[in-house]
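Whiteboard transcription, Tuesday session. T.W. wrote the structure tokens on the left side:
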């Protein structure tokens, strides 16, 4: 089994050493659970290992994403300049001075096929082997019936082009699902991040619901967000 090491402390241990190569994994969770940080950490750790990557941003300005990542010490500018990282701007539609400096811009973010064309171009240009889409839910939030089809289409492209990918999926605070009808069947893996109140305190936890191609922990593990990113306590378990 060829695996992609995420480099996220504690995570690789609970999935048997890393994510099976070419898997497309749904990273689901409610607001404030750390989904974007997890995805960005996965991208940055890959770059540090010499693995080129594509980051698709649908909900935040690319400039803000770079600032957010730099706060964890993840400076991605040099990797973009060296052609090792492509940030796909599917947020601004090319509007604004900063957006004009972006190389990969989806001019019609609500047109899925336009995004697919730009994504393909970015992966091909830099020979990416890691990809993160933040968030895939944005693509079908007003058309939930399309959720499974969109995830399957992304899976076909990303896996077919050799990427091991995270699709970030939003759920509401009370929802225990994965962010869209049928998406759990379309993805190769599902990671769920949660933020639950326990004895008057919010606790973060992670559980791997499925991961095709490998054995994985069936327990829920606590994690924390530090100034260096996400750290999972693989040796500990938590009951919600």
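and on the right, the sequence the group agreed on:
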């Amino acid at each position: 089994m060829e695996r992609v090491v995420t480099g996220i402390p504690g995570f690789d241990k609970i999935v048997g050493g890393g994510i099976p190569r070419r898997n497309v994994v749904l990273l689901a969770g409610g607001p404030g659970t750390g989904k974007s940080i997890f995805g960005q950490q996965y991208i940055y750790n890959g770059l540090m290992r010499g693995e080129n990557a594509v980051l698709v941003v649908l909900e935040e300005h690319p400039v803000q994403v770079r600032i957010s990542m730099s706060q964890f010490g993840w400076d991605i500018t040099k990797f973009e300049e060296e052609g090792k990282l492509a940030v796909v701007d599917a947020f601004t539609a090319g509007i604004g001075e900063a957006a004009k400096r972006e190389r990969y811009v989806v001019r019609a973010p609500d047109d899925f096929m336009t995004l697919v064309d730009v994504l393909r171009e970015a992966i091909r240009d830099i020979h990416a082997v890691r990809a993160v889409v933040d968030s895939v839910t944005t693509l079908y939030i007003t058309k939930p019936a399309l959720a499974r089809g969109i995830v399957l289409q992304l899976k076909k492209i990303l896996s077919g082009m050799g990427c091991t990918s995270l699709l970030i999926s939003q759920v509401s605070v009370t929802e225990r699902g994965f962010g869209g009808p049928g998406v759990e069947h379309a993805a190769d893996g599902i990671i769920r991040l949660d933020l639950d109140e326990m004895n008057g305190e919010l606790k973060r936890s992670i559980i791997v619901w499925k991961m095709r191609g490998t054995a994985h922990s069936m327990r829920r593990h606590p994690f924390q967000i530090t100034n260096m990113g996400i750290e999972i306590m693989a040796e500990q378990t938590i009951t919600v």
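Someone added at the bottom: The chain has seven helices and twelve strands.
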